[in-house]
Model the fold of this input.
Amino acid sequence: MSQREKIFEMLRGFETVMLVTATPEGRIEGRPMQIVDIDAHTGNISFFTGLTSRKVDEITKNPEVAIVGQDQRSAFLSLAGSGLVVHEPARVRALWSEPFRVWFPGGPEDPDLRLLVVEPRLAEYWDNRGTNKLEYMFEAARAYVSGERPRVDEGDQHGRVPL
Done:
């Protein structure tokens, strides 16, 4: 599996991630967001958002965003990219599921409902699942005994990948 494939395999394992934006005053703010779709061809990540939400204003003024995901204590992912708020009613209807009615009482036709699409450019991951966990535990024990920092090799366990 390529590192790019690994990124999207890990991302599909997260139901909710933190979306990080910059306010007009320059503050960095994050909030949990449920992933609605990951486009298999482009890698774009979509969320539902309200047109009048603060994050829409922030992304309109500065489209640079980050997405951060963590799965328990074993898989960590950070993506940097550009956010874009789009009005695509047909796509919203196709991605709609009833639990979203809590946030959008008007359903998929709610006039406030928009898609927030993140086009990722760079990703970094740390994956200590499965055999990677055993490798990491061995390396951590070696580092503890030797007094050196653990070595984490690029590849299956860690990577920084342009998208």
Q: What stands out?
A: Residues 3-127+158-162 form a domain with the Pnp Oxidase; Chain A fold (CATH 2.30.110.10). The longest strand covers residues 113-127.
